Amino acid sequence: MRPSQRQPNEMRQIRLTRDYTMHAEGSALVEFGETKVICTASVAQGVPRFLRDSNKGWVTAEYGMLPRATHERTQREATRGNQGGRTFEIQRLIGRSLRAMINVEAIRDYTITIDCDVIQADGGTRTAAITGACVALIDAVRYMQQKRMITKDPIRGLVSAVSVGIYNNVPILDLDYKEDSNAEVDMNIVMTDRGEFIEVQGTGEQRAFSQQELNQLIELGKHGIEHLFNLQKEALGWVTESA
Amino acid sequence: MRPSQRQPNEMRQIRLTRDYTMHAEGSALVEFGETKVICTASVAQGVPRFLRDSNKGWVTAEYGMLPRATHERTQREATRGNQGGRTFEIQRLIGRSLRAMINVEAIRDYTITIDCDVIQADGGTRTAAITGACVALIDAVRYMQQKRMITKDPIRGLVSAVSVGIYNNVPILDLDYKEDSNAEVDMNIVMTDRGEFIEVQGTGEQRAFSQQELNQLIELGKHGIEHLFNLQKEALGWVTESA
Amino acid sequence: MRPSQRQPNEMRQIRLTRDYTMHAEGSALVEFGETKVICTASVAQGVPRFLRDSNKGWVTAEYGMLPRATHERTQREATRGNQGGRTFEIQRLIGRSLRAMINVEAIRDYTITIDCDVIQADGGTRTAAITGACVALIDAVRYMQQKRMITKDPIRGLVSAVSVGIYNNVPILDLDYKEDSNAEVDMNIVMTDRGEFIEVQGTGEQRAFSQQELNQLIELGKHGIEHLFNLQKEALGWVTESA
Amino acid sequence: MRPSQRQPNEMRQIRLTRDYTMHAEGSALVEFGETKVICTASVAQGVPRFLRDSNKGWVTAEYGMLPRATHERTQREATRGNQGGRTFEIQRLIGRSLRAMINVEAIRDYTITIDCDVIQADGGTRTAAITGACVALIDAVRYMQQKRMITKDPIRGLVSAVSVGIYNNVPILDLDYKEDSNAEVDMNIVMTDRGEFIEVQGTGEQRAFSQQELNQLIELGKHGIEHLFNLQKEALGWVTESA
Amino acid sequence: MRPSQRQPNEMRQIRLTRDYTMHAEGSALVEFGETKVICTASVAQGVPRFLRDSNKGWVTAEYGMLPRATHERTQREATRGNQGGRTFEIQRLIGRSLRAMINVEAIRDYTITIDCDVIQADGGTRTAAITGACVALIDAVRYMQQKRMITKDPIRGLVSAVSVGIYNNVPILDLDYKEDSNAEVDMNIVMTDRGEFIEVQGTGEQRAFSQQELNQLIELGKHGIEHLFNLQKEALGWVTESA
Amino acid sequence: MRPSQRQPNEMRQIRLTRDYTMHAEGSALVEFGETKVICTASVAQGVPRFLRDSNKGWVTAEYGMLPRATHERTQREATRGNQGGRTFEIQRLIGRSLRAMINVEAIRDYTITIDCDVIQADGGTRTAAITGACVALIDAVRYMQQKRMITKDPIRGLVSAVSVGIYNNVPILDLDYKEDSNAEVDMNIVMTDRGEFIEVQGTGEQRAFSQQELNQLIELGKHGIEHLFNLQKEALGWVTESA
User: Which residues, at least 6 apart from B211, have a Cβ–Cβ distance to it below 8 Å?
Assistant: First the structure.
């Protein structure tokens, strides 16, 4: 039995609140149960140095946590003087994932910066962040189209992410903090809405895992991600809400 | 006429949402119109080095802004590697203001850290932060009393803060961003609920100001702060909501 | 009775030594009793990024303390790796105060950097710094006029500053370190020589203060600042030394 | 055809030079073709703060690159003032992988730090580092046993790692720099010598990948890692060199 | 002919003002012509970690420059975030030189920190700093003896330093800034008052130098340092002032 | 008797391995006994800001140590966040020494960066680094000539360096770590192959030294450096290997 009382393949309640803040070109509050992340997409002219004269635009991500988003207060990275390894790892993952849904040639000369700030953490913040950021990014791109900053639609499709893991030798979906911190194996899966993988990151935290377990985890992740695509489409108004 | 269409002595709509997050010992979301700040109070054992063997506890504050809380995205202080001068100035002001409402001898051996994180900025973030943090701090102290971490009530009273300024030669109350960035004079006032001052910080941004103007600004601030004390008392359940 | 044996409205001996160093375009050593600050004004071409294409020049200030300017040696900020919150607060105050005496349009394309370095501290370093920096700044501006770097006189008037406070429930003027560290209320006042305020920063360090006390402190500050303007004018040779 | 002229399932020449440096408790130079990494294992008393009073020891890793290990000189992280995101990501991967081969209860009170420094880079530095560090770590543990610092053998087995990827739509094994920088999909696999996974990190760099491609990549990785275990055992003298 | 019109073996006017500041246990202002350095010696209990349990005390030095001590304003190291290479080099030299005059066993459990802050620079700041710091250090040691913090006299003798160099192929003594920045060879010499060397640091800035030139420079340095010892002894009251 | 059993004037076995790495324009592994340093020379277009519009190129050096190059593991400077004073001192010495062998006008518009990374330390790393870097630098210059980046030969001659010291009152040559850490006096000498000095840096670590000792140390250094020039010439193929 899971600490959360959920079935192994049961997700937490997911909520996507579009246009959560007033200044950003695109924004969303994403909630995976008690995990809450504010995602904003900011459009700016110019590209990083390594893309100068490349005819490409750029999508990048930053990730942060409010100090008391966690059980114990964690030191503010701004007072520590730098971002930690975990932060770097997560924001690189979010950035790569979102670039997979964008044709960067179609946003040339622009950088879209995705900020994912966790205001409450209960496991799965990075996958929630990717799922919410996808919605914010699409709204920012629509803004660019309206303002005629770009002429071609750069969106290749949607991206969603979910965590899976092995807990008490049972593969489970969408781990909360309690489950995550005791899981034997932990995996984050990012997929496109065409059913292909962008990222598969599996880690044997307490023990190694077999080929069969790897297959089961991936199956479970696919199942959860399908659900997330439906919610994203509803939030974006692409489909009417399921009854 | 003010850009916000408000009367000179009219405040924005103020909202105080208590218990806004699940992990902190005390928390509140404070809204001054479109300015939104999450305030959390975290209790930890131990005191800073300069208070060792002093029989005193400590209350300190940190302040941050989500990168896209502002019109233009601002660089994350964690990526910049340090907090800026404005941040230091604000968190020192918040800390001093809150210490004025606490008898630090009565929380000996404990540090309460107040985190004020702006999720949307539209002027007056520091005074909103103080006003919200007061509520979070009281809840954290009540938590300490319930857990019998302290025996004596350390609360001396409430603290609220508001900004005033001179705009087009007219003293106005509770400036939003547009008003603030064009004000000739800018003043932050922090008071106790016994009608005394904790901080008065007036700055001639575009011109110097006369003794008479100083008096008018202070009068206006007192008026606004009275309203804030009523809202804090309602949020804390000390009075029933005004009809 | 004050620890310094002075009357409540009695200042320490103030000295302004103009042209204290050989390299700077303007410089002064300012002494408020045992508090000694070297102020230099350095002229350089160019303005900060946020003023590009604005037709404005800039005046900015930096503040430092020699490690053993204080009773106990304090760590050098250069070895610590950053400036502390107190330093930021002070240098922002000095910069704002000095900008109030300059028409920045008249120094377009130039930045004047004021460095205030405390070589001995005994209370009131920030107000001494402003008072001395005013003299250094005027000399730097005169240098610019002589070198025909600017054509219009940018000086709007003089600026002086003094600290006041409440000690043993008595409002006193120009606190030394011993008085300052035991004062109940602490206030810094910056004024123009036309009798208007640039900054009023009052803080209840040990207790809140009443409206009446606020008024008394301001009155005391005005009195002290009048004296400082006389000394600045003497140092600048605008008036002959008073008998 | 691969740029390296190798067959899709053909590895580069691998060399493991044990005891490469004189000071470390364990060390190895690992070469995957032109990629060369010095791995040292350093034993020290004490554990990180989060393990105090836990009865556990710790294994951690750091990763660096000589500035001219790469085609173009890269800035030294020590002059830049911090380690980059890529470095954090890699050293966290190495640390997790090596902890999987150690029973940390059996090295209580000790920390073993693995340093992996790339002296020449040609793709696959992180997987080479893990493979070489495994040998250095075993030697450091043997040293601890000889010195009677520990009584129980903490080694659970060997760990090896290899990179696989999709290049021109063909899954290939052990990518060099040229292949890696043009691969569509990139995957790092870390396994135990019992045929189980510790890490599977697959990234769609230029396009998403299908379930079938995921399976092929994993198959290829398993094949390569088997070869690495043979070489590690030879280097450690556990088997005699294959003819 | 030297730019300074001095004879090759002629020093600038040297002044040593003892007890220059009020807080430090020992202090001096040292002037080599227009080069002015404030030297303070601060006594504190405790020793650096590497000396724990060693029965030794420690003498260390820090060096700084006011931003406008130089012709052009230099960036404050505190705002830059770290000390530069030149600063490290100089403070290590000062520290080593002063430790040579102290028996560190006789100041066990104490650290004496020498701060040398240049308030005006005109060449030779590091040698002036050593010469002035020697006086400050002796006064700090006398303070420790009076306060009975130590029982044995730790002073082994005096230390002085001077710069020499080759300018227009002529060896010259005590270079000012103009001479120093055009010298072909530059050398700093630190000696004890028993005529032995503590440091000899010669650098061919614009060309290499011969054995004969090396000998001439050392001879010149000895000559200058003899004069400095006389001035130190006068300042310390060990001899009466020369007529 | 020396700990190393060598005669006072006997050097360790020196090895220079040219072209040690594949990417750098010039590279060498230099070994002074067990001290091993990788030296690379990297050519890049552009010069530092202070040389813009000067018609000069630049040669600069950086120095690093692998964490376990030493007996005890030392913290990585990249994790510490900055380079230490010792590192600055050494890389400035290396840079100055190598600039002495180059006519910087003849490499205008280019910067050559020398990286010296110690992979195993046993005393004398800085002098070994200079000796090895000289070879790497010559190869980088030859590369520039072949690629017609420069037209005039900028090489003025060779540069070598060695350490000498006084151990048990006996002047000795080429100290290893054990000797160095117990030497009374320590000196590094850098010379040109025309028999002139570039640097002489002598330090009385445990006691001051006399004029006679200074002369003996320099004599010993000259002797050692002569041997190094022969080895450099052999490595560069300028002379055939001595029988």
Answer: C197, C218
CA B45 to mean position of chain CA atoms: 24
**Burial of residue C88, with CB atoms counted within 10 A of its CB: 0-12 exposed, 13-18 middle, 19 or more buried:** buried
Task: Answer whether A196 sits within 8 Å of D202, measured CB to CB.
Answer: no
Distance of residue C140 Cα from the nearest chain E Cα, in angstroms: 13
**Chain F residues whose C-beta sits inside 8 Å of any chain D C-beta:** 21-24, 27, 34, 38, 40, 42, 44, 62, 64, 66-71, 73, 76-83, 87, 113, 115, 117, 119-122
CB contact under 8 A, A218 and D214: yes
d(CA E68, CA C114) in angstroms, rounded, equals 10
- Weakly modelled stretches of chain C, pLDDT under 70: 241-243
User: At residue B85, does pLDDT exceed 90?
Assistant: no
Mean pLDDT rounded to a whole number for chain F: 96
- Reported as a single tens digit per residue, the pLDDT across A118-146 is 999 999 999 999 999 999 999 999 999 99
CB contact under 8 A, B208 and C192: yes
CA–CA distance from F57 to each of E204, E208, F149, F155 (Å)?
19, 20, 12, 13
Q: C22: buried, middle or exposed (CB in 10 Å: 19+, 13-18, 0-12)?
A: middle
- The average confidence (pLDDT) of chain E is 96
The residues on A that touch D, with CB distances below 8 Å, are 82, 84-86, 88-89, 91-92, 96, 100, 187, 191-192, 194, 196-205, 207-211, 214, 218
Q: Which of C94, C149, C80, C155 is nearest to C127 (CA)?
A: C94
Q: Which of D64, D70, D73 sits opposite F78 (nearest CB)?
A: D64
Element housing D90 (H / E):
helix D85-99
**Is the CB of residue B77 less than 8 Å from the CB of residue A64?**
no
User: Mind telling me how many Å the CA of D136 is from chain F's nearest CA?
Assistant: 12
Predicted pLDDT at F104: 96
Q: Please name the helix (run of DSSP H) or strand (run of DSSP E) that holds residue B221, with its range, or none.
A: helix B211-235
Tokens 């750029």 sit on residue: A58
Q: What is the DSSP letter of E159?
A: E
3-state helix/strand/coil string of D144-207: HHHCCCCCCCCECCCEEEEEEEEECCEEEECCCHHHHHHCCEEEEEEEECCCCEEEEEEEECCC
Are the C-beta atoms of residues E187 and E129 closer than 8 Å to each other? no
Alpha-carbon gap: D111 to the closest alpha carbon of chain F (Å): 12
Least CB–CB distance from F23: residue in D70, D76, D80? D70
Q: Indicate which of F29, F73, F177 best probes the interface with D, i.e. most D CBs within 10 Å of its own CB.
A: F73
Tokens for A230? 């439906």
Partner-chain contact A209 D196, CB within 8 Å? yes
The reported pLDDT for the residue numbered B242 is 59
The rounded distance, in Å, linking the Cα atoms of D29 and A9 is: 46
% residues pLDDT > 70 (chain E): 99
Report the alpha-carbon distance of residue F65 to residue F224 in Å, rounded: 25
d(CA B99, CA B95): 6
Strands, E assignment, chain D? 14-18, 26-32, 35-45, 58-65, 110-120, 159-167, 170-173, 185-192, 197-204
Decide if A27 and B68 are in contact by the 8 Å CB cutoff: yes
> Looking at residue E242, what is its pLDDT?
59
Picking from F215, F152, F161, F163, the residue whose alpha carbon sits closest to that of residue F187 is: F163
Mean pLDDT (whole number) for A93-97:
97
Mutation target among C164, C198, C222 for the B interface, most CBs of B within 10 A:
C198
Chains that touch B (3 or more CB pairs under 8 A): A, C
